[in-house]
Design brief:
With 305 residues, the protein is mainly alpha-helical. The chain has one domain. It contains eleven helices and no strands. Helix 3 crosses helix 11, helix 6 packs antiparallel against helix 7 and helix 7 packs antiparallel against helix 8. The longest helix is centred in the C-terminal third of the chain and has 36 residues. The chain starts with a helix and ends with a helix.
Length: 305
């Protein structure tokens, strides 16, 4: 009995260790910025000079929340009865709860699906894996397009056409595959999920374009795509919820490694860290009301059933 209990405690212990490590990495990011000299002062001065950038910095995470919720809904409705509003609330509550130890948001959402929507845990896990794979594919596609457009020295119109083309193709594929009995088959859900995750990655690209400008270190679109890719890689590591600490360092190190892609010359790791800490602050400002309202709304829905 004690051996079984010990085995069950190991995953929880690993998650607690991961959470503590994330906090330590976050603290190390703040320490590195403080030691870098004028990074904090320059970022603060830049933010005060262009406060209008704070608005998209806070609103764009809300767009991520919506498209990710839709991607999960497309996949989860194949396994049980769940409406789009309920799925959006679940992702909203999980978004905030994942800042707690033990990935409380993810575990709570899986438990909710099992208890309320009668969706097996294995199906919930399968959906997460598929969604993650589609997100990885979308990230590779966006980074590849950004690299190609940078090599071709494309104009703004060229960039717009290149980034819009995959969305158009996936949109047409979604419409043409929605006919007949295949509506719940992979030919129907795959283009929809890919389209939504592609939109999610583009929103991340826009977020980094905004926060780097907000903190006084503007970058171009190829560099923004590289930051988004580093972010997605950190978020995929099953160590701590929302990539806490890991994401900041992934972006900071990527920023320092890409001097050729920056709009105004090389950048230090501290400047990259400062930009993603601003991104984190904007995200928390969005996740806090969304998470609290979503949790309240879900509780009210349950009481009303």
């Amino acid at each position: 009995m004690s051996e079984v209990s010990g085995r069950q405690d190991r995953p929880a212990a690993r998650k607690v260790i991961g959470f503590v490590l994330g906090l330590l990495l976050l603290g190390a990011a703040g320490w590195a910025i403080a030691r870098s000299g004028g990074t904090i002062r320059e970022a603060w001065s830049s933010a005060r000079a262009q406060p209008w950038l704070i608005v998209p910095a806070v609103l764009l995470p809300l767009a991520n929340w919506v498209v990710v919720s839709l991607s999960f809904w497309v996949l989860m409705r194949r396994h049980g009865r769940i409406d789009v509003g309920e799925m959006t609330l679940l992702i909203g509550a999980a978004w905030l709860l994942n800042y707690l130890p033990l990935r409380a948001g993810m575990l709570g959402r899986v438990a909710y699906h099992r208890a309320v929507n009668k969706i097996a845990i294995a199906d919930s896990v399968r959906v997460m894996v598929i969604n993650l794979a589609c997100g990885a594919g979308a990230t590779v596609g966006v980074v590849g397009l950004a690299a190609a457009m940078a090599a071709l020295r494309a104009s703004a119109w060229g960039w717009a056409a290149a980034l819009a083309a995959p969305a158009l193709v996936l949109g047409v594929w979604s419409l043409t595959s929605a006919r007949g009995s295949a509506v719940l088959g992979w030919r129907s859900w795959l283009p929809r999920v890919l389209l939504l995750r592609y939109a999610d990655v583009l929103i991340w690209v826009a977020r980094y374009w905004v926060v780097f400008r907000l903190t006084g270190t503007p970058i171009d679109l190829p560099a923004s795509a590289a930051m988004a890719a580093a972010c997605q890689l950190a978020l995929a590591v099953p160590l701590v919820g929302n990539g806490l600490g890991l994401r900041e360092w992934a972006v900071g190190l990527t920023a320092a490694a890409l001097p050729a892609a920056l709009a105004h010359g090389p950048m230090s790791t501290a400047q990259g860290l400062a930009a993603d800490l601003a991104n984190r602050a904007a995200e928390v400002a969005a996740a806090l009301p969304v998470g609290l309202v979503s949790a309240w709304a879900l509780a009210r829905r349950r009481r009303g059933q």
